[in-house]
Amino acid sequence: MKKEELAIEVIKRLKEEYPDAGCTLDYDQAWKLLVSVRLAAQCTDARVNVVVQDLYAKYPSVEALSEAPTEDIEEIVRPCGLGKSKARDISACMKVLVEEYGGKIPRDFQALLKLPGVGRKSANLIMGDVFGEPAIVTDTHCIRLTNRIGLVENLKEPKKVEMALWKIIPPEEGNDFCHRLVYHGREVCTARTKPYCSRCCLEDICQKNGVEE
Fold this sequence. Notes:
Endonuclease Iii, domain 2, 2 domains, elongated
């Protein structure tokens, strides 16, 4: 089976398995997703969803957060880890949004990448979830699963995985496909335990690369 054919079959099966999969970070405004995805680095989405409640209660807008002392932001987001650097990036990012974009998030991938603390993974998430544009979010689940399944081969660098997937994943499927990989990676094709291959919807087509039998 060619990689393109494998990709289509994987997408089809994951759609059936996780029909309602979406972003697991809670947000009701675009800028909040930008904040949450920065906090999610080396932290669970569940914890981020709890921590940001206090952050937004105190600073309910881009403008308010841009004017907040970095030390105050750090104190609130510390439970997410890397508090100092995350607070610094969030503060700087909000300032840029206010000063250059009128408090809005730019609808341009390259412009997003220029925002403090925003990398390709975050920019793709914003483009896909906020603006509905084609996007491939290469988080740890995406990298692990696509290597195991055989959609990519021995690629660990996020950008290389992203570029390889763009060649075989239909653009309109990329964003939802990556969300479904998160669900599958948490529930079945796990990282910290042996994958539960016996109850995997991809078991008969998976290459099981890097999985010890």
